[in-house]
Amino acid sequence: MVLRGYVPTSEETLQTLAALRLQSLNSDFSTHAPFPRLEELFPPHVLHARLPAPRPDPPPPKCRGARLRAGLLAGGLWGHSLAKQRAERDQRLRGRLREEGASTMAAIVEKWKLLQGMGRPEAMAAYVALVREWPGFGSTLFDVDLRAVRPRRGGEGTGNGREGVALTPLSTQSPVGAGPQRLWLGIGAKAVSLYKPGEPEPLDSFCYGRISSFGASDSSTFRLSVEDRDLLFETSQVDEIAQLLTTYLASTAARRPPQEPAPGPPLDPDPATLPRGLCPVAGPWQRPPPTGSFGS
């Protein structure tokens, strides 16, 4: 997850994590120690982000009338010149990338030298301690496109995020008809969270008591129903997401102690009397059918 960029943290921390990994693999610094490739220690996308954005290619020359023949010749020369410019630009970018990589590796090695005497268990513990500082630690992240957020029929809202935390409702951030948003869908043991890629704090988070149902509308569309909203995601990992949610749901239900029905007619709880920090309980869970088709 670190190497794929799924742990949003500073570049300084990423270098420290790389140094701890080297200490765990090779013990104390030595010029004779085997060096892994940089992409096995440090997220490659961080280096690519330092490079300047490529400029768009110039438009081809226009050819009209009697000048068509000359224009075709000019177009061929233009195409050759454009290919040459692209090759030179790519060579410059590769050279810049090598420089950035060498600079980053040097910084990692300097941090590695400072870890002299640290044993492998201590290096591993320090590594995990740094990663655990991210609130989403322990979640499985999926790349998804949020296609739409639509109100459920007859649903009534009971909140727009975690109790005690001010969050902007997703229904206002991505109204029906807006373009899709690339997000991380984090599936954890206690909650489902939505992150903007690279941001450490979630846009919104739902504990399992607030999720009323989920399912696959088709092979690439996943639906998550949260109280008064249906969230539609486009993803190539529909089955993986559904299976993980089912597993966590079963685990949550197994840990929940049985409750005896109270005498008299049931009363809706007053939200003001609920303990802060706990999610209000949603309606009965709608389990997906076991055939692999999770409903529409």
Can you give a write-up of this model?
The protein is of the alpha+beta class and 296 residues long. Among the domains are: 2-53 and 89-133, Up-down Bundle (Acyl-CoA Binding Protein), CATH 1.20.80.10; 139-152 and 179-255, PH-domain like (Roll). It has 6 helices and 7 strands. The protein has a 7-stranded antiparallel sheet, covered by helices on one side. Strand 6 (221-226) and strand 7 (229-234) form a beta hairpin. The longest helix has 46 residues, at 68-113. The protein is flat. It starts with 10 loop residues before the first helix and ends in a 41-residue tail after the last helix. Residues 1-259 form the FERM domain. It comes from Asarcornis scutulata. This is MYO10 protein. Residues 152-172, 252-296 are annotated as: Disordered.
Characteristic terms for this protein:
single chain, 296 residues, alpha+beta, Acyl-CoA Binding Protein, PH-domain like, 6 helices, 7 strands, 35% helix, disordered C terminus
Element pattern in H and E: HHHHEHEEEEEEH
User: Which residue ranges are poorly predicted, with pLDDT under 50 across at least 5 consecutive positions?
Assistant: 155-178, 265-296
The secondary-structure class comes to: alpha+beta
Number of helices: 6
Strand content: 15-25%
User: In the CATH scheme, what's the topology name of the domain at 2-53 and 89-133?
Assistant: Acyl-CoA Binding Protein
How many β strands by DSSP? 7
Instruction: For the record, give the distance between the C-alpha atoms at the N and C termini, rounded to a whole number.
Output: 31 Å
Please give the CATH class of the domain at 2-53 and 89-133: Mainly Alpha
Radius of gyration: 26 Å
